[in-house]
Amino acid sequence: MKEKALDRRVAKDLYVSTLFFGRRSFVERSCGQWWILSAEHGLVHPDEVLGPYDVTLKDASRLARREWSARVLRTMDKRVQPGPGDIFEIHAGTEYRDFGLVEGLRTRGCKVEIPTEGMRIDHQLRFYKLAEE
């Protein structure tokens, strides 16, 4: 299990990587509400309790990523109810956002912002570290 705690926890505490911590810290300060994109569980509220898992989208096929994105959008429609004019800031890698998620949100009339788009991991880490200062 890469960069996850070894026991059940609320989702916001399950992911223990430096990058996730930076993303979490950023959105907790700048967004009214936030959600986690999980390869295993789809859209997850930060306070949902999850056990550790070993699933990633990095090695998933294009079709699997599209199916995952469609599932996340269905869950968003039920739990978040995105609509015209809503702004979604996505702090996740391309494998999580570029296979239908961004397109689906835009189709719903939402504005999508990706503050670290095109940045390598080291630049993302620097971005989040500077945002804390």
User: For the CA atoms, what is the radius of gyration?
Assistant: 14 Å
Strand count, sense and closure of the main sheet?
2 strands, antiparallel
Derived structural class:
alpha+beta
Q: Strands of the biggest beta sheet: in what spatial order?
A: 1-4
The counted number of beta strands is 6
Which segments are poorly predicted (pLDDT under 50) over 5 or more consecutive residues?
none
Average of per-residue pLDDT values: 95
Molecular shape = globular
Helix content: 40-55%
- Element-by-element helix/strand order: EHHEEEHEHHEH
Counting H and I runs of at least 4 residues, what is the number of helices? 6
Count of discrete domains: 1
Portion in beta strands: 5-15%
**First-last Cα distance:** 31 Å
Q: Gist?
A:
This protein is an alpha+beta fold. The chain contains 6 helices and 6 strands; from the N terminus they run βααβββαβααβα. Strand 2 and strand 3 (42-44) form a beta hairpin.
